[in-house]
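Hi everyone, sorry if this is the wrong subforum. Our group has a chain we'd like a structural model of before ordering constructs, and none of us has done structure prediction before. Sequence below.
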Amino acid sequence: MIGMIRALMIVICMLWSLGLSAQTPQQLRDSLSALNREIALSTTYSVDLHLRKAAINVQLQQWDYAIDEYSEILSKEEGNITALFFRAYVYNNVRRYADAESDYRKVLIRAPRNLEARIGLTETYIRQGKKTEVWDELNIMTKLFPDSASVYVMRASYEHKEGMYDQAIYDWDKALEKDCDNADYMLSKAVTMISANRKREALVILRRLETMGVSQQTLHEWIEKCK
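Answer:
Right subforum, don't worry. Here is the predicted structure as tokens:
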């Protein structure tokens, strides 16, 4: 899930930049109507207007309309990285994984160091059950982005899922080296330690999280598992 969460965050950031994130659904629909009028009155094709329209479609979860918008943009500008990236994101939301994979790969041909696209591609591989490709991408990312906590978080999450608890703990530690007070990372490390039957060590982390103000409701289940 880490990859899709990050991709969603990117979408939200894009929407904020357009002043859309705080709007109600009705306000978004009104903005969409205004954009449609502006597009209809425009004498030249504007990629920016169509990207803004697609962004609202995404915010409203109008996936088919968003795909159509991004596809139209790409018919005009085949190499438009923004359209490729967000169409891939939308394809993943409608479970068109092969199409998402294709778009992420096109982004990476043009921008091999695009971390978000690599995370999106890795998530797509996870959804398709392509384990070899997942490991390849995870290892590529740790080499390309050794200072990115997100990369180690994604690898740790996948290692935990695959029952590779010692490796996952190592990667949680690497993530915490980059962001030492991140409560989510600390809790995830503790959960992995519980799975690895390292409950005493996990309890130390959970008690520290208590002192950091993490709610008892969040921690109670895991503290009980340490007993």
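For your construct planning: DSSP finds 13 helices and no strands in the chain. Residues 183 and 209 are 7 Å apart (CA to CA).
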